[in-house]
Amino acid sequence: MTSLGQFYPVDSPVHSLDPRAKIVATAALAVGLFLIDSTTGLLFVAAALVALVAASRIPVRTFLRLLRPVLFIVALTVTFQILFSREGSVVLEWGFLEVHSGGLRLGFFLALRIFLLVSAAGLLTATTAPVALADGIEDLLSPLKRVRFPAHEVAMMMTIALRFIPTLGDEAEKIRGAQAARGADFSEGGPVRRARSLIPVLVPLTVGAFRRADELAEAMESRGYRGGEGRTRYRELRFRKRDALAIAVSVLVLLVGVML
Amino acid sequence: MDNPGIGTRPGGSLAVCCERVSFSYPGSERPALSEISLELRRGEYVGVVGPNGGGKSTLVRLLNGLLRPDSGLIRVAGHDPATEPFEVRRHLGVLFQNPENGLVAPFVEDDVAFGLENLGVPREEMRERVAGAIRAVGLEGYERREPHTLSGGEKQRVALAGLLAVEPEILVLDEPTSMLDAAGRGEILGRLEALRAQKTILHVTHHLEELIHADRILVFNGGELVANESPERLFSDAGLLRENRLVLPVVPRLALGLGLPATLGTPEDLAEAILAGARAG
Amino acid sequence: MRLELRDVHHVYARGTPFQVEALRGVSLVVEQGEVLGIVGGTGSGKSTLVRHMNLLLAPTSGEVIVDGVDATTLGKSGLRRRVGLVFQFPEAALFAPTVEEDVAFAPRRLGLEEAEVRERVSETLRSLGVGDLAGRSPFALSGGEKRRVAIAGVLAMGPEVLVLDEPTAGLDPASREELLALIRNLREAGVSVVLVSHDLDEVAEVADRVCALQEGKVRAVGTPAEVFYSDPAQAPATVRVASLVNASRPGIGEPVRLDETLGALRALPGV
């Protein structure tokens, strides 16, 4: 159980898939979604995603809650699309604003695409432990090492971030308490006042984080760390037949969607 | 060095050797360490004490190559930490003061494996050594725990396991218990007791009671090595203790006040000695 | 001030699967002008308990009473000025560009005149032996200095009760003695001190009364001798030595402090 919030730990066939397979499938979906042009195609993909969510044994309500933050952005984007598109015939007029049929169509597609994309990404993070995600990303990026891309360093940074987020959270709580004990009030005043009242928490937290980073670097070096060269990995990612199958099925679904 | 051969022979009886080592932090007027010469022989358990800023932490970082001396010679297991830090770190492991900031991985067993990963040890062998190290510190069952859920003593034991997995002959402990509560200190000191027989240990601390069974104790003050004494001699020398801001723990203080040896460490030992004296008297 | 906790219960994360009952009916009094030591192992509830003293935490049930009045009826800021709480490793919360500014934070929040704020700041810094550090950056100080500046930051409020949560954690023994001397000075000045500590030896040296917590309940409360001799296995070294000797040679009495214990042991014939 990690404290990042997105990951929902249960036993399911989706959870036990290799993270690399899931990342690749999600990426393929992202590309594919924008190639699909028909309503039927998009609905077919939507049906496939619903089946996946069911297979992941994550309660539907929990899953929808994960998506809530995105709804606002979707609504905003779609509204702009509808209001500023000039394709097709005029359907509605209100002052200088014109809604065209083309705009409605594009808006609808955009909403559906974004929703499906976010659902797929949400499914990825909900069924894959953050550490596994980091490993998967590192593995997938490692061919890029040949062109000097710091794949190992990126993965190391992600792992360290995951390790320290709960610690920093506890530290922030403690500092808040200490400043409250000295009379600090974080809930009074308007937005500017409130932002300023956070300085006695943010400054020590940041200074403390830098000191932690220093001590951590010393500890890592002392334990023989010198970058990714020559390093082996304790954690294992095993790519199995079912993972290849998962990727194949996702690509198939997308092809069908495009054809529909 | 008088005999340049001794310090450089790997497996020789000299584990650590410093000859006239000096170091100043950039921008500082006073040297942090000044012409320090010392030897640590294999199997010894040596304590390092002294006021803050006296050079203890600097010494630790010079020994494992985090810092480079401005002048002088250092040899650890025959290697020079300034030019071969990676090699030195196979032979010398450091347990730092802050249990939190030494743990790098999201899970206990991954962190214990960190040092082995750095050495490029194959996965199969890693699994065995990690399991062994976790057993050695009594943390079986903790493999998938996350660091932030552990107590201070448990975190420090994880860090110790991480060191032991690499199997260094020399352990340097930099105030390993100062941020722990009484329970945590007991946990760590217990494990260290068990390691005395197999390792060469350099133990930096403020708690003199931890060094009662040390072979000898080095006192650093103002960047200089001002004393190299047995625990009995150091504990009984009130002047030396005062000059170096050292405070005797309760039991030795009582012992000295009653004319008994200062190296009676536990209340039980002291009570026994008192009763023996009272019976005889 | 007389600070009383009456049958205080505290449950964390109520109603969730992570529910924890940290305090299970603790009743305790902090009398005017005393040093009260609070001891207990990890999980005993020490830190949770002291956070109720300035209502940083509110009891799930039970009351916090200040001079006979329910503390929840007093304004929070008023209470927090009168009961100053210093967290463990308080230097982690230092934030201002200079030591002066940092220590001035609390007095300023009280709405005092700038002149009075300055006076309080310099007086408090002086009483903690760090007066000459006023213009320095708090981040450039040594560990012991930072600790004292952080404590000054709370003392500058002029509290009637000062609650210290493990104030000597991580300090070298010499700095520890200096801090214990500070506690004695505060008592002399009429400030009550609540000292939470896992170090029984330091509690033995300085406390007037001791409260021992175990698993969220009060195991024992009373004078140091009463509390420590009731369970010598969980006691300071002085008490352990004295009990062991007493078992074979009764008549030492129940000394707690180092000087008392030395005196009592010396009085034994043959020693």
Walkthrough of the structure:
Chain A has 260 residues and is mainly alpha-helical. A two-stranded antiparallel ribbon of chain A has the order 1-2. In chain A, a hairpin with a 2-residue loop joins strand 1 and strand 2. In chain A, helix 1 packs antiparallel against helix 4 and helix 2 packs antiparallel against helix 9. The longest helix of chain A is centred in the middle third of the chain and has 31 residues. The mean pLDDT of chain A is 85. Helices cover 38% and strands 20% of the residues of chain B. Chain B contains eleven helices and nine strands. The longest helix of chain B has 15 residues. Chain C is an alpha/beta fold and 271 residues long. Helices cover 37% and strands 22% of the residues of chain C. Chain C is built from ten helices and ten strands. Chain C has a six-stranded mixed β-sheet. In chain C, strands 2-1-4-5 form a four-stranded antiparallel β-sheet, with no helix packed on it. In chain C, 46% of the residues are buried. The model of chain C has no long low-confidence stretch (mean pLDDT 92). At the A-B interface, helix 6 and helix 8 of A face helix 3, helix 4, helix 5 and helix 6 of B.
Produce the secondary structure layout.
The complex is a heterotrimer of chains A (260), B (281) and C (271).
Chain A: H1 19-35, H2 39-55, H3 60-84, E1 90-94, E2 97-100, H4 101-127, H5 130-141, H6 151-181, H7 191-197, H8 199-222, H9 241-259
Antiparallel strand pairs in A: 1-2
Chain B: H1 4-8, E1 14-23, E2 33-41, E3 45-49, H2 56-63, E4 71-76, H3 85-91, E5 92-95, H4 108-118, H5 123-136, H6 152-166, E6 170-174, H7 182-195, E7 200-204, E8 216-221, E9 224-229, H8 231-236, H9 238-243, H10 250-257, H11 267-280
Parallel strand pairs in B: 3-7, 3-8, 5-6, 6-7
Antiparallel strand pairs in B: 1-2, 1-4, 8-9
Chain C: E1 3-12, E2 20-30, E3 35-39, H1 46-50, E4 61-66, E5 69-70, H2 76-82, E6 83-86, H3 99-109, H4 114-127, H5 143-155, E7 161-165, H6 173-188, E8 192-196, H7 200-206, E9 209-214, E10 217-222, H8 224-229, H9 237-248, H10 258-266
Parallel strand pairs in C: 3-8, 3-9, 6-7, 7-8
Antiparallel strand pairs in C: 1-2, 1-4, 4-5, 9-10
Helix pairs in contact in C: 3-4, 3-5
